[in-house]
Batch of 4 targets.
Target 1
Amino acid sequence: MKVFDPNLPFYKGNLHAHTTRSDGDLTPEECIQGFKDHGYDFLAITDHRKPFGGYQDDQILVIPAAEYDVNYLSGGPERCFHITGIGLVHDFDQTLMTPQQIVDAIKKQGAFCTLCHPIWSMNTLEDLMTLDGYDAIEIFNTISEVYSGRGYSGQYIDLLASRGIYKLITAVDDCHRYVRDAFKGRIMVQAQDRTWDSIHEALKAKRFYATTGPSIYQIERDGDHVAVDLSPVDHVRFMTNSLYDGERFTYAPEGGTVTHAEYTMKGCDRFVRIEGWDKNGGICWSNLLVR
């Protein structure tokens, strides 16, 4: 089974950005132009509690979206929940809402719901296990990495998957300053066309990957055997719930690169996901392939 359809194009998009409508440094017009200039096909401006979008021209689709949050800053360890709704039809009252109520309100509109930067938010595994109904987790969040050193949340995805909870995987910028925190984390979506309906369908069908640089061309699965073709990288990681397996990494020969790698799931593997790391620090991430 091939994950990607050779006859469909990929569309480049960012699902998390802020403007002067909340706490970003660029106006919506400046933000949109910046993503146009960097070759993006779609964008979600997720200003805090202020849905924005529904715009499209011949270069870019701006999807109606917003970010909602609940902060626990006293009475125990500080942590928060930031949750984006992509494809929102209208706003809703967030007063005194719990994280679960936010997810439920987003999903009631049929929107795509993502838990943002859980490692930056200092979420616990229990937090993520008890929160129900969200679609995706940000495996990488650019601003959380470049300004806080906590941008990578892959461990949550693996811990959840090892317990039978499977979430889609996105990479985003969450850009505010547009200095170091923009035009890096993104998803590449294989869709019929550049409309939200087509992109949303592709997200639900897992016809996309997340990246900060490398490209995934194809993933093929035959039973327990998985193969990936991708742009030149330094090494490929096949991440599973197994504690150790010496066959999970494929390294480039000295002075060379890797463009193809394979792995056969072992007896205790419940899932596999793929990471490709290039020599410049860029990473691509597949979605989970569940056994």
Target 2
Amino acid sequence: MPACLDFQQDFDKIQLTAGNVGTVPVWSSPVTGNSVLSLHEYPFITTETCLDKAPPTFQGYITGDKFCAGLDNRTMIHRGNSGSGLTFPSTERLLTRHYLRGIVSISPEWSVEHYATNDFVTFTKITSFEHFIKSNL
């Protein structure tokens, strides 16, 4: 799916609100080499909720340049999917566009099968790296 970039802080705040659902393209099992690409939905969760759910040893990874999204219907992200983009839709004049808001970063736990087994995944905010992204496009 094509994705747009928008670095406006106000737009970021609109899209990153509790319960707003984003989409991530996920490979079913990049570790085993038997991969199927599918789109999974992840609702945004607040930093407060994320910190409440996170084990104490993981809370330090939830920094100002990160946000969390929950695992909807127990869909999972494999380790090999780090770097995938999380987009949120926005409709204007009957046209829906998806905007990149974050990049899959890290999850508190990974099982033996290399799945994220917790209730959320952290994403790196693209707005925190606007200068880097623009200077490398």
Target 3
Amino acid sequence: TDAQGYKLAQAVIRNPDGSTTIDTKAARADGSLANETITVTSADGTTRTVSVDVDGVIDRIRTAVTSTEADGTVGEIVANYRGASLVSAYLLDRTVTTTTWDVGGKTVSIERDTDGDGLFDQTETQVTSDPGP
């Protein structure tokens, strides 16, 4: 059971393309479905899509895509949508994080589109110096 007292059931499916689907259902005491979360992770682990149903229809979708470049730069894009599928859903918000390293340390750049209009509303840069020996 979870924190709300729902009985949890989980199915893990290995898909033919190598991706993995995890379907987690939470049932009320009377057996009716309280909510369902479906998580699909790509075979290489770089893409994850989480779909959430709280009323019998998928309501929210979160995608996370991670990439690593040859120079070690790591990028991650996390986007939240409202709707039943990515085809028909609309963007709620999006965060793009880029992490780079050089001899001086690490730089993390974060760009946020807080209202889903496709424009970044906030930009943040964090620089961590490597103090050396």
Target 4
Amino acid sequence: MSTLTAATQFSGRAQLAGKRWGAGAVGIVAVLLLWSAAGHFEWFKGTIPTPWAVVQTIGDQGWTYYANNFGPTIELSLRGFMWGNVLAIGLALMVVIIPLIEGVATQLAIISYCTPIIAVAPIVQVAFAEVQTMIIFLAAISVFFTTMIGTLAGLRSPHQASLDLVKVYGGGTIAQLVRVRVVSALPSTFAALKIAAPAAVLGAVLGEFLAMPERGAGPALIVAQQRGDIPAVWAIALLAGAVAGVGYAIVAVISTYVTRYSTGMAGTR
């Protein structure tokens, strides 16, 4: 009976997965058909190229062109992702250890989220003479709010019984943090990091738009716009989106292996 039940459950999961993949494939085909029609019939005054025109442009410009331009963008995105998340997670840990700073920390996170990057960029450009530092800062500020709030929510998610058990054995706030809270915070933290990865890429590209370094996806996009090369603009924009998607996927894969250790630790306080 148990074997039959397991087989039934496996079959049900396979059918559900098949339906999801099928729905996704239908959606992709529909988008491509609509995109092709928009390009072929020159909707929106010819500002939308056909998918084939974009693919052909990527092939004509070659791997070297995109590697030279996207390499610096990816590097600066990673550095901004690292610094922004380190500061955000560190501040969330400090809030748990020193609850009095929660108001200031939360306000700081909200300000970083609500202030438009375009408004912050001129100030940052004056403060940081180096172009790369400015781009890293803008990428970091793009991820700060999401990671800080997600981590803080996770640190407050463990069962009260788990915290009481540590306290009974003589552990204080730090012991509760290390033994219980950090582990229970993993799912929320990695959920925030998945969102932060594309945000870092967006922040870096916007920073390149404003700072205009010698190489990068942002400058390449501006040059394509100035030339009126619409397929090239779309190619760079789509590849930037693909880079952001890869970042999300990498964090998601890491998350599946890391968060399994927090199973059963989270719950209502």
